[in-house]
């Protein structure tokens, strides 16, 4: 008999449900409870590309040390509420772990395991007795298992009741019925089993002033703070909630108090081509505008992205990446659109990308992206992903400096145009400041001066159509210069020099951040030490180049098949590919710690073997 | 905006409009279209309409896609900003532009390939969203710029240059615009300035989506016998049903038209479209009347022209969205950024 | 006074015309005449993105040695028929060169140059006198200057009359009137000037059995020979004539003799998304299908390309590249869609590319691409360009082996399905042969077996929908394997090892081939010797890798701004970027010899300076 | 093709069709749509229609885009090849497939988002090209798969879940199909199998473009009050105008219908559609009659159902292109490759 797992504030629990049965809010309640006990928590929704009736899981990691990435491997506790997936769910429990199931129907003998603790609670039956209405029976079954967990894991019942009163403020009957359901599970567990089990929770202060929010909510909010007034979009998982969040916050914060009218315009367009068309039209006309999409939408936007690049129109595009290629895995996560975005559209194009790693950065990068896109007059693509966008993350509270201002970039308004001296002639594509960025004017600015024709065809510095090779090259070279300017303005990498003498480093970006501290700690335990760099944007700055130059071997950790960031690094920095080693994970689930640790160790030991082999 | 266009020194004999500007002031750069191309006449009609309306040209934004017709905006209203976007996607760019600043006048110029072939989806959707703009298609039934292939408006059974017969059903943009909810729908002929100029004036003054399908022959690739978009064919088969006069707001409307004789429709700015139907039973304010007439003439092989439908006072996109009256692109940091206090509250709600 | 240029069968002549005035056929007559004298010739159309009334040029290089790429720099002779461009045209003449113009209107004094020979012939006036009809007057003016050239350059008049009778077979009156026009110019020149001038032509046999044809014609023909039966397309310069050629040849060669009906279906679709949709639908259903497009079309096709990659559907796409990005320079040439095509669409995708370098390869690659795409069940993109597609090239005659067969790839037909043994189950994505390529079935093949659902979403080996990470990864890894298989099947590089000991090499592809022999000869004169490799496809084979490995420094010559092939080489072969030096030319005109020679020499001398600097 | 489906062992009580197959043989894999979703009923109607027509299922090719409705083909005709393509672009894939092999039956299944929003252009163009196929839109006025946003067929003034009012003009796909030249146009309701099954049978038997707009409620996101696509609303507002019976070719047509009572229209294969119009003045062979009736009912807030228009014997794409009768995908090397001799001549012409 294997010893049951013992731990305090450190476990992974997985809820197995059927989608469309209302489990989401119950599971969410559990995560919130952990959070409210002051213990770091990271819940993950694993849902099918379907609306109702298929298996869906909610995996929650609870970790006192704040390690919140996916651990990988099995889980400590399963709450199995879905008969369809029972076999898989039993199999997911680690030896010594706990399997909680709805014992209204008996567990098939074949599924029994000796090496785990099996805890049966007749949730369905309990609710059948308690509630008369079918819908209530279905919904409260979920709340009941949360109640049971309160007992089994020793979660303060108070925490739940507080959460419920907060959630259902003003709807007291809901508070009551939910509490009843909670108690149903709680009491049953308490009286039937020895509580708590080996795994339990204790109040802590490891959460501090942190918040629990998903990336898409933060991105949408960032667009409000960044001053976006126009949004054209088309629904697609997992980006839809960015616009939903923007819309919700706008309805609250952007209503003109005098007239009750809206200081924003959101239009659901007929497809993604039209969505980015709206952004381009609005930006050209001097409004801050954005759209959000995912893989297939990015592909459809590529012609327009080329136009924006060449005609130099600001675009803010939030790409919440999912599993590709094609329709791929719409409800899974990946970082596989880097090349498609960096090189989007035919011809020589290079686009600016940023890589947020947590909701706070979603907020900040979204807000700042309008400054950057307008400053650079080019598309800026924020590369989020499903893991970040659609899951709640524990992160630092959002901040805003009230003395901020929008940087609208280089624009000549009526007055400046009026004051142009004789002989001074406005030229849309004149590189006045030698940074590759030119001055633009908004339509309607001045009756006589500053009008020009925007186009995707070659033109001279005064925006006049030309097929003259020299003008074309002049312009294309300036765009390269602008790309270099961009590298100086966009978010700097987060570099951690553990020790200057380390020859090895890890390079990563986006949601991989979530597993990095833990992975490095694990590696360190095995005597392997690394400096590290989290990339936050493309093109790469000198700082990035120096870091790469400064190490002999760099492990580039990515969530895609082809090592796309590594390709960008080599292409842009001209570094020797043999120094950059890919560590990849791309099965659609967020990268787990074991993939990083395993990937690096395997590479090093393979190397070791090679060397030994050579020597022998 | 405080600035108005300044009248410049000009030849004393050129007539000037209310802004003191001449026709010349509304022109653009020299056309590079083929000599005789219908699109240049459409451009000239736009110039004349804007001149006569005394529009401040810089308050007009010109938008187009790709094609000879979409190049045309370069050749008129040189003081307006223009945007030659990508093929078939002008409607979405216009939607964004309009959202950003409701105070300008939006003039879209497109071709039949641009709007009925690659752009059919965007065209239909911009209509159903009722964007406040004027949308002109210079319709020649062919792709001029790529040398003469049939477009989706080429009529079934007509012949392309080289003699090939068109077998796909031709799309009638006017019917499509009507069924998608356009509130000002007209058709005309580039060769008929008399008819076209007032229609453009009315469209520019209309609040809502105004569509004008202008038959605009391509002299180089679709002006032969067998084409239903040639100058000859059009001259022979045009049926002007509803002639329209545009009477500007400021001019005193002295003679109120007699019922039956003409119908006066007031525009939002107080100007008037005075319509005269050749057929008395025709009601230019009824969508079904318009459908029926178009269909009937089409079956006879005739091309019905004039102001076919006008709905005054309908709501447009900004109204449907209930956006503020001020241009969104003019809102400042204070009006847009909720600030740190609000964020603090939000943080609390995320706990 | 500079000595007039003297040469035989070696010069560049440029015709300056107004587009839409019928000069094309006259100019073409000139090129054909040179060809028929047995002298290598390469004409280039330099035309505006416009239909009528703007300047257009026709540049013809005549070179006995068969060097037919652009020389670069000025030209030896200009025939100036366009008052709009007169100033530029005078300026284009090399010192000692010849400037022939229509002296009906006098040449402005300001344009006169002392260092060139100015030859005025009143073409307009001559035609006014000879012809009564205005249209004739306009058209025959062009023929008249060809006549004058016959005299000035000593071209056999017979050659023209033969060409005319061939061209206007059966329309004798046209032969007569054209001959009259030719004589008009000929006689005037003969009696007015000392003929020939310093530059002249002599009959030769340097052409052999070569042909003069443009790449798009050859590509269209290749699609006929390759067995394409379905074509969905959308017009766009410079690809339109591929489909026009396919259509023309089909009308001649693909009519069922019994019924008079067509063995092909060409549909002009509403846009490029629809065009490639047709190809995908037809290929899925077992027909050979293709489309042709250019930059903007490629961008629009990118979502569908991802579907074809992931669902593994053959696609043949002919991309006749033009100047990008966006609408860019529609009537100029470039090789700038490599990254957009190789990595087209979101997610981890890699597409197969081929790079024809002359019309013969256009023909062969098009024909073979159907075998390859069907064998590989993936998109294959043929990367032609405007320079190759729309200009006449001197090249070897087209050949076809009559004992060829189509390789339709791995398909299980009714019989094979019927004969599947008990327990053998067809699985669409089973890697039976361990080459990453699976067996497919056509719709309708068998009543009971072989049906499956094709989709862009993740699926297992039996084509069933799944969101299981392991299945997804299994599939994606197989696609990588298939990509490696592709490298073995697609056209091999053309490698020229001048000397095994050379440490330096040039790497190039596509139309750059045209200037390479001459460039290498020039470099050799300066004591610089290189091995060379012409890439003909992507992904790269072992042979390519070995060549790269075998040299210390490789100059990668490309017609784009960003060195896109170099990026692909580094990404795919993992070679050290510092060994690959870009030589780039991308102003929209075909790369000239001087760009290659200059680019390489500049690099080497910069290096030299650096070294010397270091040493001192 | 020599192979025909083999009848398999089956439960003796299940009825079999002419091929000896049962209803079960036409089913697909288990549906993953929401319980009660209209799309499953549409799928069941397809199964029944194919079963009753005794179609060899493997000779049907199922094509779709992306959406709940576009997933539906997985759940019927499991022995047919299917192609779940990309969002809104099924029509072009169907066009290619059809070109490749004119001998199969093409059944497209799409949603209102897929066909009226992102796919409007492709939809309109496949109609005007008169592709020989059956095109079903399972129309719920919303995007089911992305959780309930309004689609372009959501009626203006109706309410979405959450109470937001639709302000854009709703697209009527039936009118659009009619105006683009469809030759078989019907509308029905997923809840009315009686009406729907014969319409599908007729469509599958029709040579040319057959369109069926099936109102197919989304129980999860668009089945509330205020929606005009809910089960309740539809039951209350459907007006079945032309009921249709499909009489297969092989069954002796014993009773020839009396004029006025019903109208028999012969299909290309000899089968018959027997139409009964509720309103005698309605002529199902007249496009304008159809337009007028649809418009009239629409104005009354009613949804007209039945076989609204049928034109038998019109030419379709293959005929317009004049392709050979045999499937193009079946042509061999000899029939396709002109060979070296021809190339030699061509080389000569290039000299
Ligand atoms: C995406 C894309 N596809 C194709 C083209 C090539 N193209 C340029 S203009 C044009 C057709 C224009 O037709 P129309 O809109 O009728 O304009 P016209 O020239 O007849 O006035 C096409 C196909 C393009 N520029 N972009
Ligand atoms: C290019 C692209 N954009 C967006 C999506 C996301 N998406 C999937 S289905 C769908 C809408 C489906 O609506 P409809 O066709 O009406 O089908 P329903 O689910 O209502 O049956 C959308 C927007 C996608 N898959 N691809
Ligand atoms: S080609 Fe036709 S449409 Fe284009 S400019 Fe010439 S006449 Fe006009
Ligand atoms: S979400 Fe709506 S359309 Fe989709 S399966 Fe459920 S009920 Fe049907
Ligand atoms: Mg046109
Ligand atoms: Mg729908």
Order of helices and strands of chain B: HEHEHEHHEEEHEHEHEEEHEHHH
Secondary structure: helix percent of chain A: 25-40%
Name the CATH superfamily assignment of the largest domain in chain A. Pyruvate-ferredoxin oxidoreductase, PFOR, domain III
What is the overall shape of chain B?
A: globular
Give the C-alpha Rg of chain A: 27 Å
The figure for the number of domains of chain A is 4
Count up the helices of chain A. Answer: 20
* Count of individual beta strands of chain A: 23
Structural class of chain A: alpha/beta
Number of helices of chain B: 12
Task: Output the keywords.
heterotetramer; A: 616 residues; alpha/beta; Pyruvate-ferredoxin Oxidoreductase, domain 3; Rossmann fold; 4 domains; globular; B: alpha/beta; 10-stranded mixed beta sheet; two-stranded antiparallel ribbon; 12 helices; binds thiamine diphosphate; binds iron/sulfur cluster; binds magnesium ion
Q: Could you give the topology of this structure?
A:
The complex is a heterotetramer, with 2 copies of chain A (616 residues) and 2 copies of chain B (351 residues).
Chain A: E1 7-8, E2 10-18, H1 23-36, E3 41-46, E4 55-63, E5 75-80, H2 86-92, E6 93-102, E7 117-121, H3 123-130, H4 134-153, H5 157-167, H6 172-192, E8 199-200, E9 211-214, H7 215-225, E10 230-233, H8 240-253, E11 265-268, H9 272-284, E12 289-293, H10 295-300, H11 302-311, E13 315-321, H12 338-342, E14 352-354, H13 359-376, E15 379-385, H14 386-389, E16 392-395, H15 414-418, E17 453-455, H16 469-489, E18 494-496, E19 504-509, H17 513-525, E20 531-535, E21 537-538, H18 542-549, E22 553-558, H19 564-573, E23 580-584, H20 593-615
Chain B: H1 38-53, E1 60-64, H2 68-71, E2 81-84, H3 90-100, E3 105-111, H4 112-117, H5 120-128, E4 133-139, E5 142-143, E6 149-150, H6 173-179, E7 184-189, H7 193-205, E8 209-215, H8 231-237, E9 238-247, E10 263-266, E11 272-277, H9 287-299, E12 303-310, H10 317-321, H11 333-336, H12 339-349
Parallel strand pairs in B: 1-2, 1-3, 3-4, 4-8, 7-8, 9-12
Antiparallel strand pairs in B: 5-6, 7-12, 9-11, 10-11
The complex binds thiamine diphosphate (TPP) (2 copies), iron/sulfur cluster (2 copies) and magnesium ion (2 copies).
């Amino acid at each position: 008999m294997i010893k049951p797992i013992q731990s305090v504030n450190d476990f992974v629990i997985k809820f197995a449900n059927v989608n469309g049965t209302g489990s989401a809010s119950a599971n969410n309640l559990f995560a919130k409870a952990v959070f409210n006990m002051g213990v770091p928590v990271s819940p993950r929704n694993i849902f099918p590309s379907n609306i109702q009736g298929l298996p869906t899981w909610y995996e929650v990691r609870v970790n006192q040390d704040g390690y919140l990435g996916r651990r990988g491997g099995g889980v400590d506790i399963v709450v199995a509420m879905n008969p369809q997936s029972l076999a898989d769910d039993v199999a997911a429990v680690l030896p010594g772990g706990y399997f909680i199931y709805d014992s209204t129907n008996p567990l098939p003998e074949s599924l029994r395991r000796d090496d785990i603790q099996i805890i049966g609670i007749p949730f369905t039956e309990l609710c059948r007795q308690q509630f008369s209405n079918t819908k209530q029976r279905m919904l409260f079954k979920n709340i009941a298992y949360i109640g049971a967990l309160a007992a089994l894991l020793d979660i303060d019942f108070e925490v739940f009741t507080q959460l419920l009163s907060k959630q259902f403020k003003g709807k007291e009957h809901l508070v009551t019925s939910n509490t009843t359901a909670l108690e149903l599970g709680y009491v049953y567990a308490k009286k039937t089993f020895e509580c708590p089990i080996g795994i339990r929770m204790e109040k802590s202060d490891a959460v501090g002033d942190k918040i629990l929010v998903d990336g898409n909510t933060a991105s949408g909010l960032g667009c409000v703070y960044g001053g976006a007034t126009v949004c054209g979009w088309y629904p697609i998982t997992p980006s839809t909630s960015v616009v939903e969040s923007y819309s919700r916050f706008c309805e609250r914060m952007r209503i003109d108090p005098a007239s009750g009218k809206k200081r924003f315009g959101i239009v659901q367009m007929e497809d993604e081509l039209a969505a980015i068309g709206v952004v381009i039209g609005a930006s050209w006309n001097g409004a801050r505008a954005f759209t959000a999409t995912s893989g297939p939408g990015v592909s459809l936007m590529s012609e327009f992205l080329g136009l924006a690049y060449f005609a130099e129109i600001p675009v803010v595009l939030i790409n919440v990446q999912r599993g590709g290629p094609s329709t791929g895995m719409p409800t899974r996560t990946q970082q596989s659109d880097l090349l498609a975005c960096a090189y989007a559209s035919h011809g020589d194009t290079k686009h600016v990308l940023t890589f947020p790693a947590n909701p706070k950065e979603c907020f900040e990068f979204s807000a700042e992206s309008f400054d950057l896109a307008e400053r650079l007059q080019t598309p800026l693509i924020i590369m989020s992903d499903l893991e970040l966008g659609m899951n709640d993350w524990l992160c630092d509270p959002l901040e805003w400096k009230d003395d901020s201002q929008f940087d609208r970039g280089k624009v000549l308004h009526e007055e400046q145009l009026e004051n142009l001296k004789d002989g001074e002639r406005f030229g849309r594509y004149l590189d006045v400041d030698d940074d590759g960025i030119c001055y633009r004017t908004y339509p309607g600015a001045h009756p006589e001066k500053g009008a020009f024709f925007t186009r995707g065809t070659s033109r001279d510095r005064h925006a006049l159509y030309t097929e003259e090779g020299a003008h074309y090259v002049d312009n294309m070279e300036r765009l390269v210069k602008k790309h270099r300017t961009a590298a100086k303005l966009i978010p700097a990498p987060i570099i951690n020099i553990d020790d200057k003498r380390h020859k090895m480093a890890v390079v990563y970006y986006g949601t991989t951040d979530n597993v990095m501290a833990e992975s490095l700690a694990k590696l360190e335990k095995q005597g392997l030490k690394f400096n590290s760099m989290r990339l936050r944007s493309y093109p790469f700055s000198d700082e990035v180049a120096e870091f790469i130059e400064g190490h002999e071997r760099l492990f580039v950790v990515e969530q895609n098949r082809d090592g796309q960031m590594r390709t960008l690094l080599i292409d842009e920095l001209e570094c020797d590919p043999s120094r950059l080693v890919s560590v990849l994970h791309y099965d659609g689930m967020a990268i787990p710690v074991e993939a990083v640790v395993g990937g690096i160790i395997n590479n090093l030991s393979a190397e070791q073997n090679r060397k030994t082999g050579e020597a022998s | 905006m405080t600035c108005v266009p300044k009248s410049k020194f000009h030849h004393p004999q050129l007539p000037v409009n209310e802004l003191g500007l001449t026709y010349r002031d509304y022109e653009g750069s020299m056309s590079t279209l083929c000599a005789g191309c219908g699109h240049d006449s459409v451009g000239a009609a736009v110039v004349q309409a804007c001149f006569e309306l005394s529009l401040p040209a810089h308050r007009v934004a010109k938008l187009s896609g790709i094609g000879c017709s979409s190049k045309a905006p370069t050749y008129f209203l040189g003081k307006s900003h223009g945007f030659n976007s990508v093929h078939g996607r002008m409607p979405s760019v216009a939607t964004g532009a309009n959202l950003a600043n409701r105070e300008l006048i939006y003039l879209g110029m497109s071709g039949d390939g641009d709007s009925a072939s690659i752009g059919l989806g965007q065209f239909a959707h911009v209509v159903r969203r009722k964007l406040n703009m004027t949308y002109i298609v210079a319709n020649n039934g062919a792709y001029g710029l790529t040398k003469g292939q049939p477009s989706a408006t080429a009529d079934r059974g007509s012949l392309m240059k080289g003699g090939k017969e068109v077998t796909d059903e031709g799309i009638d943009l006017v019917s499509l615009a009507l069924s998608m909810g356009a509130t000002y729908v007209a058709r005309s002929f580039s060769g008929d300035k008399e008819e076209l100029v007032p229609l453009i004036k009315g469209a520019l003054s209309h609040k809502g989506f105004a569509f004008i399908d202008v038959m605009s022959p391509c002299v180089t690739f679709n002006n032969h016998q067998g084409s239903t978009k040639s100058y000859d064919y059009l001259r022979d088969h045009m049926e002007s049903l509803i002639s329209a006069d545009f009477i500007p707001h400021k001019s005193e409307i002295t003679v109120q038209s007699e019922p039956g004789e003409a119908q006066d429709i007031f525009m939002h700015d107080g100007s008037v479209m005075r319509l005269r139907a050749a057929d008395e039973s025709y009601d230019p304010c009824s969508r079904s009347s318009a459908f029926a007439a178009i269909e009937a003439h089409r079956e006879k092989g005739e091309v019905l022209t004039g102001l076919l439908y006008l709905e005054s006072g309908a709501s447009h996109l900004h109204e449907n969205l209930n956006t503020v009256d001020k241009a969104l692109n003019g809102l400042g940091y204070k009006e847009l950024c909720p600030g740190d206090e609000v964020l603090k509250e939000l943080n609390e709600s995320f706990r």
